[in-house]
């Protein structure tokens, strides 16, 4: 006998859980959007079941139609799985959580609570009586604490911080110069704040955030919602929210405590969103480039400016590699921009426990802006970054800087974009063919073996017409780069010829710091590609010259199973570049890390810490034909001729360096090799770091671009080979690290 409490999959009528909007069908997949997630379902059983759920009938009723039961087994299996996962429920089930569908088109009228306080309710979850009682309790706290809220306060209850009606309320409050407080008691998370405090005309000091500042990051941190909006347009309603009467009442009580604290907090402290579960403060940053409260043309204005590294600015120390401030200071600067609700960096956490005896590897995460014409896929919404460093602070700062660097590179729409044929630009442009050097054989194989940054088998589509202004440090003049090469997820129309990679992207506490880091990364990857694809044998560096404490820290991190050595792969730039190579004695797996710095000791540290971070993240790889170290490809082990290169600390290792002077030296080296150095400044005004993309057309990418002539010519010019290799002789294993 069937358990009376168990649903009858064949006879009962089911519906999607109330927390989802009505599902959308995208070709052969089903999309379910809730407040915090987008589910993509695609089995034949689910697709057939969708019609049954939409019609509100049972499978038994559905199968009465001729041929309708052809997929009955698949539908029963899918229904059982959806029921176990809580995605569907029987229609007759009672007593579940109450949900409501926000209505963004409903009118609203301010309610006078007291002489100084009014309330606006944009939600059916908070009735007039509850709104008035909560407002009166807050008004009493406002009067009793003597808070300087003038001329009054407006409380706005809502279901969704992206409710478009909030834009009109924000404009009204800014026009009146009157503060207002957001309250959201319904949904997956209850929250209160920010307390928006419009600045009166002529007021000095940092401008406070407006609702549009908050909404920009709020939507960026909900890429599935942004994708849905781009596909379906602005909706008249948001995703359903939990809104049971007892739940909302309990939450309002908890939120009142935080709201009272915000009224008497300093203005900067009140610019935050407080959540109840968990109890967390999420700072809200003002955006100087905000279209409503700032200068919407600010980003484009900054990108069109001249870039000239200024001597005499902050000088670099060795903490983390030619940085102008200690790593701990960078972490502190970015701390208020960390958080999944309205931060730039969603979260930062260590992959292993912090220890004074071993290296700590940090990982950071950012939300990725969606490709509006692409399809949602697992992992499409999140980007993971790793940090490296000899100290926990260096590793944490490194992970955070890389996250900011990637975040800033995403196209946002306010960049200095120019859409015009190359001949109509006011300065010369760098064509896509100068930026990606695939061989003819590679292009012929793009149908099956296309590298991730390749766009087409041959130049296709219209003439390149989407550009962004950059600055040539070599010529001290403006030039233009393809937009899609400079910004991730640029408009699809701009991506016919070339696409974005992180090559040369860097973040720094100053513009000069970021430029130097980006340039050194390009040199590092150029040298790595020439060594790896050319399978060039290079000598080891004698690590006995490193401080004993450093070597012990590294060895304790890896354990005895990892054999390791460092190769000198410095090439025609003459800037020290090293490759740290590790081999696991038991599994036979390999790991490799790279480092480049004007100081060879620091280059070794960076390579070894990068190898360590990749091991911690599980990014090791097999080498074909290398079942043991003695049988490894010769280029991975040190060449015996000449012995190891001694490693000595720089005589002025503790001295601080002028970064602008080092940049000038690097640009001069590139010029001597016939190469131009170009910088795109894509620093975002709302983030306290500078971010750039440094471009040196002609350098090798670490990913396989087998048409680049430096792969063939540099080993000969350096005396490493007597004659250039042929493409067929290059290492067929792509280097993706």
Describe the structure.
The chain has about 725 residues and is an alpha+beta fold. Strands 7-8-9-10-11-13-14 form a seven-stranded mixed sheet. A hairpin with an 8-residue loop joins β27 (about 680) and β28. α1 (about 45-55) packs across α3 (about 70-85), α15 (about 510-535) runs parallel beside α18 and α15 (about 510-535) packs across α19. The longest helix has 24 residues, at about 510-535.
SSE arrangement:
Elements: E1 14-16, E2 24-26, E3 29-33, E4 38-41, H1 44-55, H2 59-62, H3 72-84, E5 88-90, E6 99-100, E7 111-112, E8 117-121, H4 128-145, E9 153-157, H5 165-176, E10 180-184, E11 191-196, H6 211-220, H7 223-232, E12 241-242, H8 245-264, H9 267-270, E13 272-275, E14 280-283, H10 298-303, H11 327-334, E15 347-350, E16 362-367, E17 382-386, H12 392-409, E18 418-419, H13 440-444, E19 466-472, E20 477-482, H14 483-486, E21 505-508, H15 511-534, E22 541-542, H16 548-558, E23 562-568, E24 577-584, E25 590-596, H17 600-616, E26 645-646, H18 659-672, E27 678-681, E28 690-695, H19 710-717
Parallel strand pairs: 8-9, 9-10, 22-26
Antiparallel strand pairs: 1-5, 2-3, 3-4, 6-12, 7-8, 10-11, 11-13, 13-14, 15-16, 16-17, 18-19, 19-20, 19-27, 21-28, 23-24, 24-25, 27-28
